[in-house]
Amino acid sequence: MKLPRGLSGAELVAALKRLGYQQTRQTGSHVRLTLSFPRQAHLTVPLARAIPPGTLAALVKDAALHLDTTVDDILSKIR
Description:
Metal Transport, Frataxin, Chain A; three-stranded antiparallel β-sheet; 3 strands
């Protein structure tokens, strides 16, 4: 599945919260999200107007790994 273009940091944070991540802290323009189940994992999301494609791909790949699912499944839930 193709990565969405123009996805903001706030939109990605909201989508990841729906998947089970919780915001644990914010430092400047970056938000740290933590997943407690099935194992503890962290993601740091920049609060940019549009997340660069490479950064978005890495964040989605990490989220898929933490949630034991596929990248396509994560992307379908983000949109």
